[in-house]
């Protein structure tokens, strides 16, 4: 409840961009072949949230591109959920020899790769880096003051509300096009939740 009631702070941030290398064409080919053949993959994947590479097995559904970046949409056995993986952060990809039955309907995890023009800019503590592991993004920057800056596409307002409520209360969120604060969106969503529990 305290998190829902917190007020967002404001501040100027000087950013230093983190350069990400292009996707390894050999890894990209393995991912595409595995997705086409419904073959389970063993990945070594660098996570900014953990600041380390982790090994995991995934069921690759499809390989997609957006804004010049390649993404793998897959079911992650480690997280027990669908995830989007940045291909340029896949350090190793090998076939396990196992296969899987692709689902009839894939959830909307990959919906953020659609051609939406709306985006959100987030500036907050390092703890919000998990967003870069869960969703595709256009910008990921680490700042000298220890904060991070993320710019990512927005598919729908309900999705944005859920995201904002999961972030640290000190995170500053602004509309990527207008530059307007999204405090009102976050506060309205939090108030609706609080109203469900407040005595009447």
Written overview of the protein:
By secondary structure, this protein is an alpha+beta fold. The chain has two domains: 2-17 and 110-197, Alpha-Beta Plaits (2-Layer Sandwich); 25-106, SH3 type barrels, CATH 2.30.30. 24% of the residues lie in helices and 35% in strands. The chain contains five helices and ten strands. The protein has helices at 2-5, 25-37, 130-134, 157-166, 183-197; strands spanning 16-17, 39-47, 52-66, 69-76, 81-86, 90-99, 119-124, 139-142, 148-153, 172-175. A five-stranded antiparallel sheet has the order 1-8-9-7-10, with no helix packed on it. It has a five-stranded antiparallel sheet with strand order 5-4-3-2-6. Helix 4 crosses helix 5. The protein is globular.
Features:
200 residues; alpha+beta; Alpha-Beta Plaits; SH3 type barrels; 2 domains; 5-stranded antiparallel β-sheet; 5 helices; 10 strands; 24% helix; globular; disordered N terminus
What is the number of strand segments? 10
Strand content: 35-45%
Provide the succession of SSEs: HEHEEEEEEHEEHEH
CATH architecture heading of the largest domain: 2-Layer Sandwich
The unreliable regions are 1-21
Number of domains: 2
> Class by helix and strand content?
alpha+beta
Quickly count the helices.
5
As for the CATH topology of the largest domain, it is Alpha-Beta Plaits
Instruction: Quickly name the level 1 CATH class of the largest domain.
Output: Alpha Beta
> What is the first-to-last residue Cα distance?
17 Å
**Morphology call:** globular
Helicity range: 10-25%
**Rg result:** 18 Å
The major pleated sheet works out as:
5 strands, antiparallel
Strand order across the biggest sheet? 1-8-9-7-10
What's the pLDDT, averaged over the residues?
A: 78
């Amino acid at each position: 409840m305290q998190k829902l009631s917190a007020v967002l702070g404001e501040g100027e941030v000087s950013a230093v961009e983190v350069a990400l290398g292009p996707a390894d064409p050999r890894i990209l080919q393995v991912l595409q072949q595995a997705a086409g053949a419904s073959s389970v993959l063993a990945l070594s994947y660098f996570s900014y949230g953990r600041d380390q590479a982790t090994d995991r097995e995934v069921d690759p559904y499809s390989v997609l591109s957006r804004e010049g970046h390649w993404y793998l949409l897959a079911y992650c056995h480690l997280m027990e959920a669908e995830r989007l993986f940045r291909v340029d952060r896949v350090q190793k990809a090998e076939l396990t020899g196992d296969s899987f039955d692709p689902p009839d309907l894939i959830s909307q995890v990959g919906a953020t790769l659609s051609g939406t023009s709306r985006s959100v800019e987030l500036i907050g503590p390092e703890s919000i880096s998990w967003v870069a592991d869960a969703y595709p993004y256009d910008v990921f920057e680490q700042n000298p003051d220890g904060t991070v800056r993320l710019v990512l596409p927005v598919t729908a307002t309900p999705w944005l509300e859920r995201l904002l409520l999961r972030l640290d209360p000190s995170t500053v969120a602004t509309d990527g096009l207008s530059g307007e604060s999204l405090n009102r969106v976050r506060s309205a969503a939090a108030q609706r939740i609080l109203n469900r529990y407040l005595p009447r």
